Each structure stands twice: as structure tokens, then as C-alpha cells.
Amino acid sequence: MAVDFRIDPANEIVFSEAHGRLTGDDLLDFQKRLREHPIFRAGFRHLLDLRDVSRFDVPMSALRRLAKVPIFVKGSRQAYVVPNSLAFALARVFRALASDYSDDLEIFRDDDKAREWLGCGSASD
Predict the structure, then answer these.
(1) What share of the chain is helix, strand, coil (3-state, %, to 5)?
(2) pTM
(3) Which of 15, 34, 58, 123 stands the most exposed, by the fewest C-beta atoms within 10 Å?
(4) Of 66, 53, 45, which Cα lies nearest the Cα of 114?
(5) What span, in angstroms and rounded, lies between the C-alpha atoms of 36 and 105?
């Protein structure tokens, strides 16, 4: 499983981490598992940490499918933490495709800045 997640319902946030080789199917599977989780709510905030991804094999077709059926509602802040320029570019393409809620999605290289923007404190808290 390339994307793991932990839901903090008390603070209304989902913490997700991707590892190793990340594919479009991994992201679609993650979206399905999260959507079906009994304590998940679409209004939660989301922190997606991509810093441990060693290879991105995510085609445009997968990005389009993910953007077409958003899992989080408009107004739910999402922060993606990326490791490099390629990941930053992919995240920006996704944000452009997800134009209905792109104002609520920010891309960061720094985990602390992402957490600050989400209002969830630092990782050491």
C-alpha cells in the first residue's frame, strides 16, 4: 500500500503519507479507502506528505480522474508536502485540474509551513 492515512476526527484532519513508487492506481485506491472509512468526513482538512516517494508514475489520466471526483468538499483545506520539483509540478497540474476546489489546496516543500497553513501544529506536537 503506497499511501497510508490516519484520521483525527477530534481535530477534523486526515494525515496521509505516500511511500516508495507511487502510481495513479495507488492514488485512486487511497481515495476509495478514505472515502469508505467510517469516521471520514469530506469537510476534514488534509495533509498529504509525499516526501518519502521515490518514484512518481502518475499519468495525466489518473490525475484527471482524481480531480473529477473530489473526496474533500470546497472549503476543506488541503496541504501537499512535496520532495522535489517533479512532485511540485505534478501537484500543480492536479490543482489546475481540480479547479472547483483549487483555492483550498496549497503545495509546500516544508512540513511545518503546511501544518501552520492547515492550523494543526507541528509534527512534534
Answers:
(1) 35, 30, 35
(2) 0.91
(3) 123
(4) 45
(5) 22
Residue 66 carries which side chain, given as an amino acid letter?
L
Taking the C-alpha atoms of residue 19 and residue 9, their distance in angstroms, rounded to an integer, is 24
Q: Which residues contact 10 (CB under 8 A, 6 or more apart)?
A: none
Residues 82 and 88: beta-carbon distance below 8 Å: yes
Q: Write the pLDDT tens digit of every residue in 8-40.
A: 999 999 999 999 999 999 999 999 999 999 999
CA separation for the pair 118, 37 (Å, rounded): 22
User: Which neighbouring-strand residues pair with 78?
Assistant: 46, 105
Rg (CA), the chain: 13
Model confidence pLDDT, tens digit, residues 76-105:
999 999 999 989 998 999 899 987 777 899
Q: CA 60, CA 64: separation in Å to the nearest integer?
A: 6
Residue 19, C-beta contacts closer than 8 angstroms, at least 6 positions apart: 2, 3, 4, 52, 53
Structural domains in the chain, sorted by start: 3-116 (3.30.750)
